[in-house]
Amino acid sequence: MKTKQHNMSIMADGYSISYPLENMVNGKDELKKVAKKIKTSGNPFGSMDLSTFTDELKKRYDYKELGTENVAGVEGTKFSFVMDKSKPNDKIIGVIYKNVMLKSSMKMSGFEINLVASKFDQNVEIPADKFGIPAGYTVEEK
User: Fold this and answer.
1) Do the Cβ atoms of 103 and 117 come closer than 8 Å?
2) What is the pLDDT of residue 129?
3) Residue ranges of the domains in the chain?
4) How far apart are CA 53 and CA 38, in angstroms?
5) Residue 41's pLDDT is what?
6) In whole angstroms, what is the distance from residue 93 CA to residue 64 CA?
7) Distance between CA atoms of 103 and 85, rounded to whole angstroms?
8) What pLDDT does residue 22 have?
9) For residue 15, what are the contacts with CB-CB under 8 A and spacing of at least 6?
10) Stretches in the chain below the pLDDT threshold 50
């Protein structure tokens, strides 16, 4: 099966809003115009805000800093943690810079997801309309 996806995620005001822009499966367009809005405030995993990890959370999730790594021309902090200590092979390894995830590799329940930034621009003005959900999408709040 060949899949090509392009998704957008916006994290703001204690929520994560994710929606697909493209979803091609075996050459067929499977795009569903549904945006999912999930409350993330108070959840360090929901916002991937590792700066909020207390010593207790670091211990619970076996959080480790593994040095630095250059991704997209930026030197970030490499880290790892496990979501469930009874499954030590199901871990997340990533690189973060100023609370922006530049790279992540997640192995969970037999699946592997890898994300790597190809470009990182700093101090760039972003038009406000980039933070909105496109017309024609419905929003599911969870």
Assistant:
1) yes
2) 83
3) 3-120+132-141
4) 20
5) 66
6) 9
7) 22
8) 93
9) 37, 38, 39, 40, 41
10) none
Sequence-separated (6 or more) residues with CB below 8 Å from residue 69: 75, 76, 78, 95, 103
Cβ-based neighbour number of residue 73 at 10 Å: 10
Tokens at residue 45, please? 């995993």
What's the length of the chain? Answer: 142
- Helix/strand/coil for 61: coil
Cα dihedral 73, 21, 132, 77 in deg (nearest 10): -30
Residue 9 one-letter amino acid: S
3-state SS, 63-120, equals CEEEEEEEECCEEEEEEEEECCCCCCCCEEEEEEECCEEEEEEEEECCEEEEEECCCC
* pTM, two decimal places: 0.68
